[in-house]
Design goal:
Layout lengths: L7 H5 L4 E5 L7 E5 L1 H6 L4 H5 L10 E5 L3 E3 L2 E3 L7 E8 L5 E7 L16 H16 L6 E13 L3 E11 L5 H9 L3 H15 L5 H21 L2 E2 L21 E2 L23 H20 L3 H12 L1 H18 L6 H13 L4 H12 L4 H4 L5 H12 L5 H5 L9 H12 L4 H10 L10 H4 L4 H6 L7
Helix pairs in contact: 4-16, 4-17, 5-6, 5-8, 6-8, 7-8, 7-9, 7-10, 8-9, 11-14, 16-17
The structure holds adenosine monophosphate (AMP) and magnesium ion.
The site of magnesium ion has 3 residues, from loops.
């Protein structure tokens, strides 16, 4: 078998594609393979495990150029410092998907970095992205993690790995910032034409922007509906497709608190849970600036078109968030006051986000005690439950949207630590739990429970990914 790859990106914008080859690996060992995804891509899992293994860890491709605002500060040249786009493949449904390696060695964009990745962070991206997919959140997918035999020097020496990743595309807000920053309007136009052909055929440039605004607004709402915090929403980590990308210092919130952040480098909480919509909108304003010359020849007109489109963000977000919350509460109609009061109560009582909505399904079926017991202020939650019950919640429908199993931070850490030490058992068990997140299954209680208090109080994820 052979993998047939196209080079649409490299052909469309050769100035943004540096031909490169992955660093040779010593002893590749397959740590995780996504068989259902392989099948979706028309790849034989048995072949990938044997003769096809080199495709998951090595090969020729391009390092993609992009710029980006990182924590608000602009870098005109970031790019794939340790990653390669091997090319695009056509899946069994005829869709074009990027095949991309992460941790494949230094490229001309590596700056001071070593171009490598350690086993732990690549397994983190694998399990969290696959959990997000199972939760119905648009995301890049993990095809495989292969350990390389390289030693990666971080705070301590770690085993190296390569992640093979699949995406609708790797076009980012930062890709457009890069093109715009070159001052080459023809390049900007070719990049936008490529994005349109790939994601929204037939659209105008302004329609492309409108699609991205809508996709990002809905994406952030979906993140928040499952308690997800991306952690590093720099413009180079925000896709044009609307897929979640780059799982670094990400985490699932436990006790509800909009100021929650886990990233060790996000000192000011720029990317905290509740800030995510505003940051996404800020990033989209940067995209609008980059695309401006394509909207209209007259700059004032271009700005007013961009602003009018950007302003649709709030309505898209509101619709996705409120609609999603209605589903989580199992009710229809106006839930706004009910929801505000609930979130305030959850905040005051430090209530676990995932557990509450899951247990609320039981309350819809008559057993309110498990959900109730998460609160200290019983009178307040009883009053709230009484109001909610008047809306005749549908417990069955709630169970289909409120997950029982999400990759909780302590479970992920445990699985990664074992994986890095050569035991993939905990990772495999966690992956099984979180890739079927809905509906309680016997024997999996461990994966539904919140972290021990002392763990939650001190947990941070590190960007040394
Ligand atoms: P991130 O915030 O992880 O998405 O990465 C930001 C930038 O740093 C991108 O340009 C990455 O390619 C680059 N980068 C991150 N880690 C490394 C590394 N170990 N070696 C080279 N480049 C890296
Ligand atoms: Mg990135």
């Amino acid at each position: 078998m052979n993998i047939s790859l196209s080079s649409d990106f490299a052909n469309a914008v050769p100035e943004m594609a540096v031909s490169w080859e992955a660093v040779p690996v010593g002893e590749p060992e397959l740590l995780a393979l996504n068989e259902p995804l392989a099948a979706e891509l028309g790849l034989d899992p048995a072949w990938l495990r044997a003769d096809g293994l080199p495709f998951l860890v090595s090969g020729k491709g391009v390092a993609q150029a992009y710029a980006g605002h990182q924590f608000g500060g602009y870098s005109p040249r970031l790019g794939d410092g340790r990653a390669l786009l091997l090319g695009e493949l056509t899946d069994t449904e005829g869709r074009l998907r990027d095949l991309h390696l992460k941790g494949s060695g230094r490229t001309p964009f590596a700056r001071g970095g070593d171009g490598l990745a350690a086993v732990g962070p690549m397994l983190r991206e694998y399990v969290v992205s696959e959990a997000m997919h199972a939760l119905g959140v648009p995301t890049t997918r993990a095809l495989a993690v292969v350990s390389t035999g390289h030693v990666v020097q971080r705070e301590e020496p770690l085993a190296g790995a390569v992640l093979a990743r699949i995406a609708a595309s790797h076009l980012r807000v930062g890709s457009f910032q890069y093109a715009r920053n070159t001052g080459d309007l023809d390049l900007l136009r070719r990049l936008a034409d490529h994005a349109i052909a790939r994601h929204h055929p037939g659209s105008t440039y302004l329609e492309l922007f409108a699609h991205v605004v809508a996709a990002q607004a809905s994406l952030i709402a979906r993140w928040m509906l499952v308690g997800f915090i991306h952690g590093v929403m720099n413009t180079d980590n925000m896709t044009i497709s609307g897929e979640t990308i780059d799982y670094g210092p990400c985490a699932f919130m436990e006790a509800y608190d909009p100021t929650t952040k886990y990233s060790s480098i996000d000192h000011r909480g720029r990317y905290a849970y509740g800030n995510q919509p505003i940051i996404a909108e800020w990033n989209l304003a940067r995209l609008a600036e980059a695309l401006l010359p394509l909207f209209a020849d007259d700059e004032d007109e271009a700005v007013s078109l961009a602003l009018a489109t950007l302003r649709t963000f709030d309505a898209h977000f509101e619709e996705a968030w409120t609609g999603g919350m209605r589903a989580k509460l199992g009710v229809s109609g106006d839930v706004k006051p009910l929801l505000e009061d609930l979130l305030a109560l959850m905040h005051e009582n430090h209530v676990d986000f995932t557990s509450f909505f899951h247990l609320l399904g039981k309350a819809a079926r008559g057993d309110a005690e498990p959900a109730r017991s998460l609160f200290l202020d019983l009178a307040a939650i009883d009053a709230w439950l009484a109001r909610w019950r008047e809306l005749k919640p549908d417990g069955g429908a709630m169970d289909r949207v409120n997950p029982v199993y999400v990759p909780r931070n302590h479970l992920v850490e445990e699985a990664l630590a074992a994986g890095a030490a050569g035991d993939m058992g905990p990772f495999d068990r966690l992956l099984k739990a979180v890739t079927s997140p809905f509906g309680e299954r016997p024997g999996l209680e461990y994966f539904a429970a919140p972290a021990p208090q002392d763990f939650s109080a001190t947990y941070r994820t590190y960007c040394g990914t």
